[in-house]
Every structure is written in structure tokens, then in C-alpha cells.
Design brief:
about 25% strand; alpha/beta; 4-stranded parallel β-sheet; 2 domains; globular; 6-stranded mixed β-sheet; Hypothetical Protein Tm841, Chain: A,domain 3; 13 strands; single chain; 11 helices; DegV_C
Length: about 290
């Protein structure tokens, strides 16, 4: 059975990478100062952070239902079925929209709700493509991805509280106090939401907290303390040099894990936390 794999740009998969891998990537839309932009189509990483720094009014949106259905209809001329992997349903309504739209496609579109974002979503997409190439049915791919949805973990430390304040996620007073005390919050994504995890005073302390949390998850949740069967990644928001340094530190701590992937944080998340953020993510390998 010929199965198409579809995702959105929250996965971090670029249009070029998608074409090379045979994966279809829907660009996420952003409204900036009243004008619509599309990630990796009319909006580059560089342009996004320039507009963010200039104080532009930025809001995230979801792909239009018409665009999603047009892509699915085009793909179904060539493929027998589609596995669609959107960003976490807890972070965007695009997943629920896709599930509703799929009802009109007579069982040919399987929408995966496995609550992933950024590099963990990317890994789900790569796993889905591998399963499809092995001839595994779209229903079985969907079930496997949803069954293993909690086999991933992300920890993020922020450089500034300004963007959490802008988004109404913390009060202006808390942001002011945090900035005054030079607090570096550590957040976590476990399934549906971006939640508070810890508070650090320096980036070094924040990284140590994230490493300790990752070690605990790999040991207790993934049962893989050495990281031999875990995909590890470092993600950043416009902070590549710091990300590469963190990667080197993690390679020394986890010498038996595979290549540590480095990527930009999804712009939909970066929009709410600002530049200078640094994250580590782990995803347990899927056992087929």
C-alpha cells in the first residue's frame, strides 16, 4: 500500500528536507503586523527573529482547512492513504481541525494525535516514513505513534521572560521580578503542554538541571540509562553557538548515544519564549 506522510513545519522539517525524504510539509502561518507569512516559504528563521526583535505584533495561526484538503486531494491521486502528523493537540487546534477534516475522506486519511512538537514531532514523522516504507499499514502506523506518545521529553531554558509576559503566560510583575533576579526558568513539554519545571540563576545551572532531568527520564521512563536506544537532540531559538556547545557537553555525558541532532526550535514555540532559548529533547526508539 502506497502511503503518504504529511506533517507541518512545527516539526522543524524544512521544505527542502521534506522533498529529499519524500515527506510533505505544510508551512505554518504567522500574522505579523497585519500581514500573513508562511514558515520556510515567505518567512525565514532570520526574518522571524528580526521582526521579533523589532517589536512586531506576531501571532500564530493554523493552516487553512482549504490548503490542508487541497494537499490531501492531490496526494490521493498518487497514494492510497495518508498519515498526517500535526503538532500537539495541546498546543494548537490544527490537530483537532485535521481530525474533523479527515472524516470526509472515507478512511483514507489517518491523523495522528501523539502530542509531539519540534524535534520529537520530527522523529515521529521519520518513524512514520520508515514504517510506511516497510509496508506497514497507515492504521498500524497511527496506532504505534499514539501508543508511544509519552516516550519523549523536552526541557527548555529561557534567556528572557519578556515573551511569556507578552503572551499572558506570566504577569508583568512576575516578569519584572524574574528579570531583576536574573532567573532563568526551565520549562518542560511532556505531552500536551508547555509547563514550568524549575528555576535557575545561570545558564550553567539551567543546563545542569536539564541534564539531570533527561538522565532521570532515560533511566526511569525509557529504561535506557546510557541512551543507546534514545534519539537525543539539542534545539535552540537563534542561539546556534550555544546549542553546539551544549551538544558537545552532552556527547561527553552520553558517549553511547547516537548522533545528537541540532535544530532551530519551532517558530510557533519560539514566538512565545523569544530568542536565546536552549533545549534538550529525547525520544525513545520505536520497536517494530
Amino acid at each position: 500500500m502506497k502511503v503518504a506522510i504529511v506533517t507541518d513545519s512545527n516539526s522543524g522539517i524544512t521544505q527542502k528536507q521534506g522533498k529529499e525524504a519524500g515527506i510533505y510539509v505544510i508551512p505554518m502561518p504567522f500574522m505579523m503586523d497585519g500581514e500573513m507569512y508562511y514558515e520556510d516559504i515567505s518567512l525565514s528563521q532570520k526574518e522571524f527573529y528580526e521582526k521579533l526583535a523589532s517589536g512586531a505584533d506576531i501571532s500564530t495561526s493554523q493552516p487553512s482547512p482549504g490548503d490542508v484538503m487541497d494537499l490531501w486531494n492531490d496526494l490521493l491521486k498518487e497514494y492510497e492513504a495518508i498519515v498526517h502528523i500535526p503538532m500537539s493537540s495541546g498546543l494548537s487546534s490544527s490537530c483537532q481541525t485535521a481530525i474533523m477534516l479527515a472524516e470526509d475522506f472515507e478512511g483514507k486519511v489517518y491523523v495522528v494525535n501523539n502530542q509531539r512538537i519540534s524535534v520529537t514531532q520530527r522523529q515521529s514523522v521519520l518513524d512514520a516514513k520508515e514504517m510506511a516504507d516497510q509496508g506497514i499499514s497507515p492504521q498500524a502506523i497511527k496506532e504505534k505513534l499514539e501508543e508511544t506518545k509519552m516516550d519523549s521529553t523536552i526541557y527548555i531554558t529561557l534567556d528572557t521572560l519578556e515573551y511569556l509576559k507578552k503572551g499572558g503566560r506570566i504577569t508583568p510583575a512576575a516578569a519584572l521580578l524574574g528579570s531583576f533576579l536574573r532567573i532563568k526558568p526551565v520549562l518542560t513539554i511532556q505531552g500536551e503542554k508547555l509547563d514550568a519545571f524549575a528555576k535557575a540563576r545561570t545558564m550553567k545551572q539551567a543546563k545542569a538541571m536539564m541534564v539531570a532531568a533527561i538522565k532521570k527520564d532515560m533511566d526511569e521512563r525509557f529504561k535506557d540509562p546510557k541512551g543507546e536506544k534514545t534519539h537525543m537532540a539539542v534545539v535552540h531559538s537563534d542561539s546556534l553557538e550555544a546549542a553546539l556547545e551544549f551538544k558537545r557537553e552532552l556527547e561527553e555525558l552520553f558517549p553511547e548515544t547516537g548522533e545528537i541532532y541540532v535544530d532551530h526550535l519551532s517558530l510557533s514555540v519560539a514566538c512565545h519564549i523569544g530568542p536565546g532559548a536552549l533545549a534538550v529533547a529525547c525520544t525513545k526508539e520505536i520497536q517494530l
